[in-house]
Amino acid sequence: MPRETRHDGRLAPGIARHGRLRKPSAVPTAVKALAAATAVVIASTGSVAAFAAWDLARTVQANSVDINDGQAPPPSIGGIDGGANILLAGSDSREGQGDRYGDPAEMVGNDHNDVTMLLHISEDHSRATVVSFPRDLLVDRPACRSADGTRDLPAASRSPFNDSMQVGGLACVVRTVESLTGLAVPYGGVVQFLGVKGITQAIGGVPVCLANPIDDDDADIHLGAGERTLQGDDVVGFLRTRHGVSDGSDIGRISNQQVFLGALARAVTSTGTLTNPAKVYGIARAVVEDMKLSTSLDDPATIASLALTLKDIPLDRITFVQYPGFREGQKVVPDAASADRMMALISADADFALAPDRAANGVVLPPGSEA
């Protein structure tokens, strides 16, 4: 498959320390959880999902004109044709989040994609792969339009990956990921702190098991070791914490985030959630209200179609991997050779196996999970 020339890494089968989703090796931080979880949930309950999509359209498409006095029936929704690539980014923006996560005024115009994940659905819908990108990855960022749409900004070498959002918004993050992976990414979304918090509250919390206590004033989270059900602000703290786990790096934090997403995906796809209309609708509304979606996703029926496609993929056929790289001080330099091998497998929809993940960095798998 043709790929753009770039020397800042290309995806790989190497570093993949995260095994199959069977072991709660999931994916993101404010965002990851949303990607898989959101899509799986919005349409997994048939008529309830269809109604939710129809009703929530009034929020997503608030500026459209209704010429039928709101009498149009809910749409007929089916899965997508072929494969798809969906990018989800977790923004550190405090806009609209209150002062719980810092002073919103200090963050205006300074958004970063602190969590970025690419979800690849195979052509035959039999498997999916989620690639997690370290925020501290140094990349050759392509030229982008400024976030406010007023300027064309030149490409930059060895640019921090998480600066892409600040430079050119979601569109620039997508272009950067397309350059890194060689994959076209037609769908994307940005989620903030309240989005993840809202989804976990809708399903009644997410269970995790901590190998060691987490005590991090910066992320405002203090939890003892053992099994815990994360809800509310503890969810945000758990996904943000660096100093509470491992060596305090973003690489260590990614492991925590992946464990969380695995647990979230299981909770979302459980019978207790999918057969509960209130929970399904609550998740759908949390997604719509606290995410900024690409125009390709501004129709809830499209989201529902993606969800219907995802819901039939078994959890043990979802592979979570991390974009490969080498440490360089506090930054990460792409491992281009490994990235190329990995992307070749992902592009070919290959069913590759990864080294077992022991959920290092202070987190172990929740009881009942397969090792």
Structural topology:
Layout: H1 32-42, H2 47-60, E1 84-91, H3 104-107, E2 113-121, E3 128-133, E4 138-141, E5 144-145, E6 152-153, E7 156-160, H4 164-181, E8 187-191, H5 193-203, E9 206-210, E10 214-216, E11 221-223, E12 226-230, H6 233-240, H7 250-268, H8 271-274, H9 277-290, E13 291-293, H10 300-311, E14 318-322, E15 325-328, E16 331-334, H11 336-347, E17 363-364
Helix pairs in contact: 1-7, 1-9, 1-10, 2-9, 2-10, 5-9
Would you mind describing this structure in some detail?
- This protein has one domain: LCP protein (Aminopeptidase), CATH 3.40.630.
- It contains eleven helices and 17 strands.
- The protein has helices at 32-42, 47-60, 104-107, 164-181, 193-203, 233-240, 250-268, 271-274, 277-290, 300-311, 336-347; strands at 84-91, 113-121, 128-133, 138-141, 144-145, 152-153, 156-160, 187-191, 206-210, 214-216, 221-223, 226-230, 291-293, 318-322, 325-328, 331-334, 363-364.
- A hairpin with a 6-residue loop joins strand 2 (113-121) and strand 3 (128-133).
- Helix 2 (47-60) packs antiparallel against helix 10.
- Residues 1-51, 62-68 and 355-367 have low confidence and may be disordered.
- It comes from Clavibacter nebraskensis.
